[in-house]
Amino acid sequence: QGLIDPDNLLILSAHLQAATFELPVGMRERFGSAPVVELLRVLEEDGSVHQAGDSWHWSADAFPAEGVSLRSAAADNVVIIDVTRGARVIGEMDQFSAPTFLHEEAIYLHEGQQYHVDRLDWEEKKAYVRPVKVDYYTDANLAVTIRVLETMASRAEQALPVNHGEVRVTALPTIFKKIRFHTHENVGSGPISLPEQQLHTTAFWMEIPSSVARQFPRPALQGALQGVANVLTQVSCLFLMCDARDLGAYAETRAVHSGAPAVFVYERYPGGVGMSARLFETAAAVIAAAHQLIAACPCEAGCPSCVGPALEVGEEGKATTLKLLQMAAFQAVA
Fold this sequence. Notes:
By secondary structure, the chain is of the alpha+beta class. It has helices spanning about 10-20, 35-45, 100, 210-215, 220-240, 275-280, 285-295, 310-315, 315-334, and strands spanning about 25, 30, 35, 50, 55-60, 75-80, 90-95, 105-110, 115-120, 125-130, 135-155, 160-180, 185-190, 195-205, 245-250, 260-265.
């Protein structure tokens, strides 16, 4: 089931501007399920529309559809420029994701072609790339913190309580690694020098009660949490019909809002577009599918197809991840 939230303020604002450009919008009109008067007044303050009588009219010079991105709800995108073809623009990426995928020396994949990022001009929001053919991909590390702003839904009756709400994600890119295809060996690395990014979005998260956490030594718990984060990202994409880059996952042994261990799956779009709410609704099926994926994987100690490589989740990471998900899946399916 593909999802989009038409009441997301960024999406609603873009749609409302396009609608006002075509026809005046009356004071008593509704746009979908949302009343629009307050939003029209905000648009009037920035000069996009003006009120005449009991209706609003488009007043800006720009064509509103030109500012709407089909890839992101945000307007501040980074433009990707192929320097070998007359500085041709080949794509865009939202500002929050750019430090992860468009940092200098990154390998960016576009329409099946690999591109090397020669330079990222952060101030001008431009990434300069050139086509290459290499036997590796790049993986960026982020120092992430997540603060829960509001819990909108919670089910505490499960062995591992699941939640949905608004969060603020703070991400600082630190280093990147070059990972060889097929063997997954690290063939190089380098620093990323870009500013910290903040994203106000929505998330789905699982909290680990102390009674469950005590059953794992601390290093094993960290590996299990990371394994759950990795596999939930993979499985969630199938349930949501989205790309892996639409979601971010983060495991914390001590969450800021509760002090308890937690695994977050957050949307990489400002305000969210409904994916995390859908994950909350289908939590039992998602958890069961994640458990099934790991159990069916023929690897011994973890691999990129299930919980992630053993170097990331620990030698017992696969077993501890299965144990943690079993606790959740048993209660959720029961």
